[in-house]
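B., you asked whether I could sanity-check this one before it goes into the benchmark set. Here's the sequence:
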Amino acid sequence: MFSYFAYAAAFRSVDGQTTIDAQLVGLAVLIAPFVFVVVALVSRNARPKLVLLAMLLLVLIGLPVGLLSPILGASAGFGVGIALVLAQPDITNVLRRRILGVLFAVAYTFVLLVVVTPAGVFTGAVLPPILVGLADEYGAWRSSRGGTA
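And here's what the prediction gave me:
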């Protein structure tokens, strides 16, 4: 969240002019890899290449989506990165469910940014990791009941 909020605070709009605080963007970029490393270590993910892929996807997804809104770009980038580096349980279609959860979180954040901006800023930081976890719980529930989808 610290990296996310530093990135979100870097963009300010005053009288129709958007300014970017390069120091805050630099701080967010320096801290972002540690987010993925911590998630991988805590979840005991034994595949360090996924951490590098998550960092790459943070940039490849975060920048284009960030053109629409920097908050949405950071939310999508961090969400997809966390979906990749979190250790995957032995359940079918885990990554698909996680990505769908992140997409739903980004869409919901967009709606909140339009309607209630402060709530959208906070939701963009919190909701993607929560929905990644809920996707895993749903997959575990579904597989315990004999379903595969």
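One thing to flag: The beta strands are 11-14, 17-20. Otherwise nothing jumped out at me.
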